[in-house]
Amino acid sequence: MKKTLFALVSCFLISPAFAEGDKDPGTSLSFRQLLSRVAVSNSSLALPEPAAIVVKDDLGLLADDRSWITVSAADKFQRTRLLELGLDIVEVDRGSVRGFARESAMREITDKGFRIDDKVSIYNFDKDFPAADAAYHNLEETMDVLRGLAAAHPEETSLFSIGKSVEGRDIWALRINPAEKGEAPSARPGAFFMANHHAREHLTNEVALLFAVWLLENKNSAEVRKYLDTLDIHIIPVSNPDGKAFDIATGKYKWWRKNRSVNPGGTYGVDLNRNYDARWCKAGASTSPSADTYCGPSAFSEPETRAIRDFVLARPNIKTLLSYHTYSELILYPWAGSAEPLENKTDLKVFETMAKQFAGFTGYVPQQSSDLYVATGDTTDWAYMARNIFAFTFELTPKRWGGGGFYPGAGVIEKTVRDNIKAAMYMLSVTDDPYKLAR
User: Catalytic residues, which ones?
Assistant: First the structure.
């Protein structure tokens, strides 16, 4: 995944106000270079071929008993029950769902009266790491960019670890705030962007990371500077470093979702987005350690979710939160863990207004999270419950598996980043007082 070619493009404009930027190459990384790296045609990329895969790595995939299945499901209540039985629902259609399930979960699903209409072994998927996907940033490359940003923009930024993962990797936060640095408290309204909660969702890292690059490259434009001078912005591109590293460690995609905790019985991983203390492990989460939607032995059992919890609770100034996920092109807001709408009608109006505006920039569909299915232990539910934060989940490109699923290739990065910069800037514009949207 080394970056071996950087092609320059003449311009990349979000709006005229964003076009000026900070053009001193000695004090900024080039957003245009990073983005153009994936914008040029794949045939012109001088990229390395994936490393040779030794037999034992292939055998590891062969031993993985997950299958991609299609199951008949009439409504969100049946979809919720399937989650609880261990199906990792990835796509929702009228009358059916698709996703990953282990053999034990499939037995449970059929025993409970559900019909499995189609089944494909995970081993029969296209597993080779595409050469074009070298444009994505792995952990080391992500850290190189973050360190470069902090070094190039010392007046505006600071970089610190909010905690460590199961395997001892740091979870890094880039803070963009000229007034306060590191972990110093701030009275400024705070905006928090986070990504790569789920290991296989590598596009989310690109969106969060390149937004940080773009903000700092354009720090002298009037449109950006007003937020740098008034807000406290934190960006965590990788919330699940162990899972991210594991998913691509051998050059073969593993479709890995969870972290890398060792579970009873020798299985691995907890679904971090089911591990928050928000109606923890009730509807829409599995108690089976082998399931992709395993909620863990207790709320906040995982060091990664505890790090996010402690980070948020230590910053009562955070007003808005955006958690990037893939895929389906959706904008989701609380409740995820309840089929009922948000009880506070003023807050609901703010959520709905923001979601519609986000949709205007991205083309994604806005809806309450539980309209898909009820899923407890969710990040955004917890953030709203614990700190009244207006927290959203974005499910990025593509819409369906046919567009590449979790691994859509480098060709989607440019447009996805561009659209989501516009949405992120909108979130910054309301962070000072989200309730102004309800007045």
Answer: 395
